[in-house]
Structure formats: structure tokens, C-alpha cells
Amino acid sequence: MWNVRYAQEFYVYGEEPNKFFRDKLDQLPVGKLLLPAEGEGRNAVYAASKGWDVVAFDSSIEAIKKAKGLAFKNKVEIDYRLATFEEIELELNSFDAIAFIFAHNMPRKENHQKMLRFLKSGAAVILEGFSKNQLNYSSGGPRNLNLLFSSEELKSDFGSLSTMELQELMVDLNEGSDHRGMASVIRLLGVK
């Protein structure tokens, strides 16, 4: 499914970074960033342009091709790997930040907790994803309730963080053709 979606010439989610990701990343000291399920590379390219050492992964070869093209266009380098959450293996305790931007996957809790192992103590966690209420809107996201987030699920997934802020809110998305219009999202900020 993802290879078909990303094979289109245009960037399905646009070339600009997610606004929440951009705003929060800009407040952090530059370091090493992990971007799971990064898709076409918009967030990875932005972070690299700000000096971050970026490692990203996705299960779609078409997404990686587009991400590498976007990186070339913007004259930055990103380490982008073809892998699923289950397949990816990285050095433990080696990243200064991680961002899950609309990274909806199963098994959710196991995948989230696996990614936390790659973070240093004191590392930042940034997450924006669709809430379960998103089924009421046509602005993007999975149409499967189990792939959408609730605050309770995310509190459980990220319960080991030393600090965590969660917010569920309505936003007006304008991210390419597939994230457009009013949407119900959950945002998480935390520190390992």
C-alpha cells in the first residue's frame, strides 16, 4: 500500500516539515535524531538542514527514493534505512531525540517501547498522531480504530519517561494532499 501511495510524482504529505515537529525540534539542542516511519523525508530533511545528525527508517522503498531526492534538492544528508519497526536495529542509548510523526503501526506499544531503548537518558520524545476521534474526519489517517491513538494508550506506552505532556486537540492540517482539513490529533512531549 505505501509503495503505491509514495510512487506518485508529488509529495503526498508535502515537502515542508510537520509544524508541531518543527516548533518543538527548534527548541532542542542539536544532536542525533531518530525518525521512525519517516515516509517521504520532509521532517528528516528539515532536521538535517538545522544541523541534526538524522537517522530515519521506513518500510517503503518508494518513500526512501523520494526522501533521498528531497535531501539532494535541499543539499543535506540523511541516513535513511529500509526497515520496519520490528526489523530496525540501532545502537542502544545513542539518540538525543526521537519524533513519531503520524507513525501509526502495530504492535503499537511494543514498537514505541523498542524505540525508547535507542534514546539516551535525557533525550526528547516528540509525537503527533491521529486520535481515535479522527474516524469522524476525512482529513487523513488510518481508518482502523486500532491504529489510532488514545491518551490512555500513549500514557501506557511511554510510562517510563521521566516527564510527559499529552494534549488532544483539533488542528487544521495542510500537509500535502493526504493531510488536509480539520483533524483530531494527540501530541506528546516527553523526556527519557
Topology:
Layout: H1 2-6, H2 19-25, E1 32-36, H3 42-49, E2 53-58, H4 61-73, E3 79-82, E4 95-101, H5 108-116, E5 119-130, H6 151-157, E6 163-175, E7 179-191
Parallel strand pairs: 1-2, 1-4, 2-3, 4-5
Antiparallel strand pairs: 5-7, 6-7
Helix pairs in contact: 5-6
Describe what this molecule looks like in 3D.
The protein is α/β, with parallel strands linked by helices and 192 residues long. It contains six helices and seven strands; from the N terminus they run ααβαβαββαβαββ. The protein has a seven-stranded mixed β-sheet with strand order 3-2-1-4-5-7-6. The longest helix is centred in the middle third of the chain and has 13 residues.
Number of helices: 6
Kindly state the number of beta strands.
Answer: 7
User: What is the percent of helical residues?
Assistant: 25-40%
The poorly predicted ranges are: none
Indicate the mean pLDDT. Answer: 95
**What is the spatial order of strands in the main beta sheet?**
3-2-1-4-5-7-6
Radius of gyration: 15 Å
Strand content: 25-35%
Measure the end-to-end span: 33 Å
Largest sheet report? 7 strands, mixed
Q: Looking at the structure, what is the overall shape? A: globular
Structural class: alpha/beta
Order of helices and strands: HHEHEHEEHEHEE
Quick take:
With 192 residues, the protein is of the alpha/beta class.
Question: What key phrases describe this protein's structure?
Answer:
192 residues, alpha/beta, seven-stranded mixed β-sheet, 7 strands
